[in-house]
Write a structure and sequence with these properties.
alpha/beta, four-stranded antiparallel beta sheet, six-stranded mixed beta sheet, binds adenosine-5'-triphosphate, Rossmann fold
Length: 256
C-alpha cells in the first residue's frame, strides 16, 4: 500500500550544514506518530519538510506517493495542514476569520463560500472549545487560546494529514488532554512533535530524533525505555504502572 506520507532518505542542510540527516519514514493512513527529541534535534525541521515548506537537500518527501516537490501549494493544502510552533496570524482579525482561513484551499471562482464552509468552521471552533470567542479580536487572545484557534484553523482545512508542532505548548492541563483526545478522535493521519513523554505514550508509534538523526522508531512502550531516555535526554526515568490500569507514568530525575 502506498504510504500517505513518506520520507525517503530525506536530509536538510542550511548553508552547507546538515541539520537533519537521512530520515526515512512511511506513515500509515490514520496513524498518530509522535516526534520526540531534545531541543534542536530537528523535529520542527522534519515537520517543515513534511509540510512542503522546506526542500530536502538530499532524498525526497512523497505525499500519497507523489513527490512533494511536484505538487502546488493548493494541492498540498487540500491534503495536509500544519500547526507550526508559535505560528502568527495577521493582526486585526477575529477568531472566526482566523479559522475561516482554513477553508481557503477549497474555495475558488467556481466554488464560492457556502453552507458547508460555515459548518466546517463552526465544528472546528466547537472542537477546540472556542465557539464562545468566535467574535473576539485575535490580538486579544492568550497564548493558549491562540494555540487552540490555530488547531481549529487546521481542523477546518479538513486535511487527511495533520502536522502539529508542539500543540500542547501554552495549554493548561485540561486543554492539553482535550487537544490530544481531539486528535485521537479525528480520523486523520497525524504527526505530532512533543516534549511530554506521557503524551508520546498516546501515539501509535514514536520517532526519536537526536542531532538530526532518527535513533529509534516504533511503538512507544517498546521505544521509551529507561536506557533510551537516559541516553537521549540525560535523565534517569522510572516507569511506574498506573494505579488504575491506565498508561504508565514516568518519574524523572536528572543524572548527577
Ligand atoms: N534556518 C536555520 N538556520 C540555521 N540553523 C537552523 C535553522 N533552522 C534550524 N536550525 C538549527 O537546526 C537544529 C534543529 O532545529 P529544529 O527547530 O528542527 O529543532 P527542534 O527539535 O524542533 O527543537 P525544539 O525542541 O527546541 O523546538 C537546531 O540546532 C537549530 O538551531
Amino acid at each position: 500500500m502506498t504510504p500517505i506520507l513518506e520520507a525517503v532518505g530525506a536530509s536538510h542542510a542550511v548553508r552547507g550544514r546538515e541539520i537533519l540527516s537521512d530520515i526515512s519514514l512511511r506513515l500509515h493512513p490514520g496513524e498518530t506518530l509522535g516526534l520526540i527529541g531534545p531541543n534542536g534535534s530537528g523535529k520542527s525541521t522534519l515537520m517543515g519538510l513534511m509540510a512542503g515548506l522546506l526542500r530536502p537537500s538530499r532524498g525526497e518527501i512523497r505525499l500519497e506517493g507523489r513527490p512533494m516537490a511536484r505538487l502546488g501549494r493548493r494541492q498540498i493544502a487540500r491534503r495536509l495542514a500544519l500547526v507550526a510552533q508559535s505560528a502568527e496570524t495577521a493582526e486585526r482579525i477575529t477568531v472566526r476569520d482566523a479559522v475561516e482561513l482554513g477553508r481557503t484551499p477549497w474555495l475558488g471562482p467556481l466554488r464560492p463560500w457556502g453552507a458547508q464552509d460555515d459548518d466546517a468552521v463552526a465544528a472546528a471552533l466547537d472542537a477546540v472549545d472556542m465557539a464562545h470567542m468566535a467574535g473576539r479580536d485575535w490580538a486579544s487572545l492568550s497564548g493558549g487560546e491562540r494555540q487552540r484557534v490555530h488547531i481549529a484553523r487546521a481542523h477546518a482545512q479538513a486535511p487527511r494529514i495533520l502536522l502539529l508542532d508542539e500543540p500542547t505548548n501554552h495549554l493548561d492541563i485540561h486543554h492539553q488532554i482535550a487537544i490530544l483526545d481531539l486528535v485521537a478522535r479525528l480520523s486523520v493521519t497525524t504527526v505530532i512533535a512533543l516534549h511530554d513523554l506521557h503524551h508520546a505514550l498516546r501515539c501509535e508509534r514514536v520517532m526519536v530524533l537526536r542531532a538530526g538523526r532518527c535513533v529509534a522508531l516504533g511503538p512507544p512502550m517498546e521505544i521509551l525505555t529507561p536506557a533510551l531516555i537516559r541516553e537521549i535526554f540525560a535523565v534517569e526515568a522510572e516507569i511506574i504502572p498506573h494505579p488504575r490500569g491506565g498508561r504508565p507514568v514516568f518519574a524523572f530525575q536528572r543524572l548527577a
